[in-house]
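tool_call predict_complex ligand=shikimate-3-phosphate
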Amino acid sequence: MVDRLFLVGMMGAGKTTVGQVLADRLGWPHLDSDGQVAQATGRSIPEIFAERGEEAFRAEEAKALTRATTSATPVVVSVAGGAVLDPENRRLLGRSGSVVWLRARVDTLAARVGSGDGRPLLDHDPAAALRHLEAQRRPMYQQLAQLVVDVDDLPPTLVAERILAGLDRLSPCIQEGGP
Ligand code: S3P
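tool_result ok
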């Protein structure tokens, strides 16, 4: 049974780390949308923003998500924070698998991203940018997610446990140890 698990949420929520833990537990491959963009373009995310701008980055991101959401095998996908801005991405995610929102308070996110190094949208005032972006995106994460995990006080392994327990209720076809 093919299934796809999409982790959404803000920068600093832990999507990449938790995605890898979950993929290991499920025996599924792990994709990270930023990693896919970097691989496809041969450029880092900050380089793409600097050389071609956010719009070009979003176009690459949408292509990466189209590939991930049509994967023929089960997959865990860590979806970069801003991908939900595009209604077409939201539609693809919503109809292609189970969506989990790693929800965190803005102060948690700010503590985790620190000076915002390597994150072009947080270049100037990371805490203020996170506050603004979180307020804008929260309704989109909320609308998409079938499962929400509050990650503020949880290490990645426990976040993964909560997700596995929650998915068990949502989708009985997901079993640990392999498809
Ligand atoms: C972004 C999130 C980043 C990366 C880029 C823009 C965003 O990914 O795609 O810096 O708009 O929230 P992560 O959410 O994996 O940090």
